[in-house]
Amino acid sequence: MTASADRHERFPGLRRRGFLAAAGGAAGLGALALAGCSGSDGTGTAAGKGDGTPRRGGRLRAAFAGGGASETLDPHLGNLFADAARSKALFDKLADYGADLSAVPRLAEKWEPNAGLDRWTITLRQAEFHDGKPVTAADVLYSYRRIADPEKAYRARASLEPIDLKASRATGERTVEFVLKRPTAEFPNVLAAFGTYVVPDGATAFDSAPVGSGPFRFVSFTPGRSTVLRRNDAHWEGAPHLDELEFIVANEESARINALLGGQVEYAHELNPATGRAHEKAGGIEIVRLRNSAMQAFAMKTDRPPFDDPRVREAFFLIADRQELVDGALSGAGETGNDLFGKGYEYYADELPQREQDIGRARRLLAQAGAEGLKVTLDTSAVAAGFTEAAGIFRDQAARAGVTVDVRMGSKDSYWKDILDSGTLCCYRSGAMPIESHISQRLLTDSTTNATKWQDKNFDALYQQAQSTKDNTARAALYGRMQRQLHAEGGFLVWGFGDWILGTARSLRGVAREAPANTLDWARFDKVWLA
Where does the record place the Solute-binding protein family domain (predicted)? Predict the structure, then answer.
């Protein structure tokens, strides 16, 4: 069941995907790649890296940008990469994404559809929660029903939309029959969706003493400061090499790199390109580059002026000099985008012509829209590498089209929450997820993290049709239609795909260098060790 070829033969819709190496799934998510079970030599060491024999013991300290006092360990509420990494350490999902963005079984030992693809039977592996209780079908159903609560803004709610959770049922202690609202050939992607963690039946409190089934157990949590976890010796996949894992919040990039250089941490998440270059050959620390890992964009709110006019949105598409943004904001560490998510993934519409800067046409479109002399505010923050630089570069590009852009700096602690509903234009980024997941979470009428507020009922219908189409060629054609519409009138100005740059102490071993963020081998702190 764990063999990729076996999965693809037995289950419809599970084909290997092309992927953009190391792309973050949610708004504000950075990328972290640590060695996992796939692509390794069986010891937790990244194959061919020469990291040696794993050593047991020690505490790994990992520095992340965090969410301040509002941070939570509720795995269904996480939005930042720090949240996701903590959730992965404490909890498990039924499935996760492999490096090619295909679904890989986790708590689910296997899955089997009926002939009509509208009922899927999930068999759970034998696993225990940290309190010794077995993971059961009742826990899975409780978790999914909690996520789907219409009164809550849980991240994965839209991803679970295909499931009729009232009709779904436990058919045994370790078997669940999911009844779907329509045939869904790629249903295992739902099981792997960001935030679909399994929690104990009835669990509601997570910040004081969360109980999961993940490779680490809870020790302590201070929001905005530190989270300490301890090895779970009873984990179904085997105990981690580390004794303890500590997540340390350091919002400033300079604080993360200085803590790494000073020996206060062994892992520093998300360094900027200049920092990476400065330390790459110095030898004191290791620099890990995850190529083309994150979508870089500006998000235009399409439900309010001036971006409720598609001519203004098209003008802004044409204002952007994407290569200048990649060179300036990312120091050349990336490649240009074409206003679409998922470059290199299955269904990506790479047949669309690359959009180039055209200031003359942008001016004409603005004049047609009555938006000559337009003034807009661009929200940005030092919350992510390249954001402030991109804002300044785009401000200068817009000025050549007669548009005044006022750059407004936001709080690093609340930026991702603030931009979801407020403002009109903001800096945005995302990591890896299937294109269909990006659409379901961000572009449908009922999507819970729709930062652009772009909505179209016909687009919703196309998405549902694609999810219900068994034939891969026909499904790809539908995704092509959706992307052509987004390319023409959507709210994401995707200007590039940047490298993520990580720093690690030379004593940290087992670090992988290929895994996209939001995939199985991302944040595999249970598979690394300290030499």
Answer: 104-433
* Amino acid identity at 146: R
pLDDT in tens, 85-102: 999 999 999 999 887 778
DSSP string, 513-530: S-PPTTSTTBT-GGG-EE
Q: Which helix (H) or strand (E) holds 22?
A: none
Q: Establish how many alpha carbons lie within 13 A of residue 189's alpha carbon, considering only the half-sphere containing its beta carbon.
A: 28
Give the phi and the psi of residue 267 in degrees, each rounded to 5.
-140, 130
Q: How far is Cα 327 from Cα 337, in angstroms, rounded to an integer?
A: 13
- The model's pTM is 0.72
Average pLDDT, the chain: 88
**Structure confidence by residue, pLDDT tens digits, 7-25:** 333 333 333 322 222 223 3
- What letter would DSSP give residue 159? G
The answer to whether residues 386 and 272 touch, using CB atoms and an 8 Å cutoff, is: yes
Q: What percent of the chain has pLDDT above 70?
A: 90
Scanning the structure block, which residue is given the tokens 């016909």? Answer: 458
Q: DSSP class of residue 492?
A: E
Cα(85)–Cα(100) distance, rounded to whole angstroms?
Answer: 20
Q: How does pLDDT run across 270-281, given as a tens digit for each residue?
A: 888 889 888 988
SS (H, E, C) 293-342: EEEEEEEECCCCCCCCCHHHHHHHHHHCCHHHHHHHHCCCCEEECCCCCC
Per-residue pLDDT tens digits for 362-409: 999 999 999 999 999 999 999 987 899 999 999 999 999 999 999 999
Q: What confidence tier does 51 reach under pLDDT thresholds 50, 70, 90?
A: low
| Dist CA 220 CA 444 (whole Å) | 38
Residue type, 91: F
pLDDT of 18: 27
Q: How far apart are alpha carbons 21 and 11 in whole angstroms?
A: 25
> Which of the 8 DSSP states describes residue 107?
S
Domains of the chain: 292-499 (3.10.105.10)
Q: Which residues pair with 425 in a beta bridge?
A: 300, 378
47: which residues sit within 8 A by CB, 6+ positions away? Answer: 39, 40, 41
